[in-house]
Amino acid sequence: MTKDMLARAVRKFKKGDMRAFDYIYDCTHKVVYFVAYSVLRSKEKAEDITQDTYLKAVEHIGHYEEDSHFVAWLTTIAKRLAINEYNKMKHESATDFTDEANAFGEVTMPDEDSLGLFKVAHDTLNETDFQIVVMYAVAGYKRREIGKILDMPTSTVSHRYKTAMKKLQQQLKGENYD
After folding, report:
1. Residue range 163-170: mean pLDDT, rounded
2. pTM of the full predicted structure?
3. CATH number at residue 29
4. Which sign does the torsion angle of CA 135, 137, 139, 140 carry?
5. CA-CA to 148 of 20 to 30 Å: which in 36, 129, 136, 154?
6. pLDDT digits (tens, 9 = 90+) for 83-134
């Protein structure tokens, strides 16, 4: 998959070609799932958010600006939906005081530390570097594949990934990295 092929599929989909959606989904579902999973830490909830992300994308495909990164657009939708779901679950578990609430299994929320690393990465890195880290470290894309998706050389992806990881390490140690 290349960025150009994905862009063509998106253009076809915007014109009503439903077969293009299959290609879009095949190319992007891993990263969308793992963005949702990194927030929710629940396979089932992440699957639901992944489905909701594509429903929302289909609904708003007319608002997508073709010169922006489609994968970034999708992951932004997934992240927002996952955070909304996380907040909803947090609110629901905080207000459920019945003894029977845990009869069917307790809902365990990710602690602040597990969300913290994702938040630190998002807050510390620019959008492209954040996307590279998520696609490589979370979704399991190879650097070569990321380069094709983002239309940049593999060596640039490798350099940006290493720099982003150093930046994150420094941030987590409490040092400022520029």
Report:
1. 92
2. 0.60
3. 1.10.1740.10
4. positive
5. 36
6. 899 888 877 755 544 444 444 444 444 444 445 677 788 788 887 888 888 8
- Asked, for residue 26, whether it belongs to a domain, the answer is yes
**Phi, psi (degrees; rounded to nearest 5) at 139:** -85, -15
Length in residues, the chain: 178
Residue environment code for 126-161, b if the CB has 16+ CB neighbours within 10 A, otherwise e? eeebbbbbbbbebbebebebbbbbbebeeeebbebb
The CA distance from 53 to 49, in Å, is 6
Does a structural domain hold residue 151? yes
**What are the structure tokens assigned to 42, written together?**
């629940």
DSSP 125: S
pLDDT digits (tens, 9 = 90+) for 26-78: 988 988 988 888 788 788 999 999 999 999 999 999 888 876 678 888 988 99
Number of domains making up the chain: 1
Question: Tokens representing 149?
Answer: 């998706």
Residue indicated by tokens 């909701």 = 52
178, part of any domain = no
Task: Establish if 23 belongs to a structural domain.
Answer: yes
The encoded tokens of residue 57 equal: 């994308």
